[in-house]
Specification:
Elements: E1 6-11, H1 12-16, E2 22-26, H2 31-43, E3 53-59, H3 72-84, H4 89-95, H5 100-109, E4 111-115, H6 118-129, H7 142-151, E5 155-161, E6 164-169
Antiparallel strand pairs: 1-2, 1-3, 4-6, 5-6
Amino acid sequence: MCTEIRIYVADLAAYNNGKLHGVWINATDDLEAIREQVNQMLADSPEDFAEEYAIHDHEGFGRFILSEYAGLETVHEVACFITEYPDFGSELLNHLSGDLEEARTAAEENYCGCYQSLADFAEELTEDTTQIPVNLPYYIDYERMARDMELNGDVFTLETGLEEVHIFWNH
């Protein structure tokens, strides 16, 4: 993933007249600084009366897709969330259909951690919460327990890499 989270903001007056005019902006900059950069880009337009813009490209947002007409405040909040949770932020937003409030709740209150597999999580959870007699561990099927946890809707997972599974309670 790109280390900088940025957007390309295009001048629509220039674009509609066959000219490319825009600016790359760091989406984690102060919101007022982002607005100033957009306003300066519009003021420098090769077209008279340039006042509309659109986001024509973005980098560093992972698989999360920004709308061309997403508001600058929304873009800034999403970029800051991804910066705050670089290991899973964009995947979590993608999983939750872009609901930033729900993603923040999941990250802050329902995050269980990163494991090699959901079965590893089920094993750790079981061993931390249950006294298992010494003759039983070989009979416990953590793969099936993990599958049941997911099928029952107790948890949801995000795979962000090889043996990198982020687990969240599904409250």
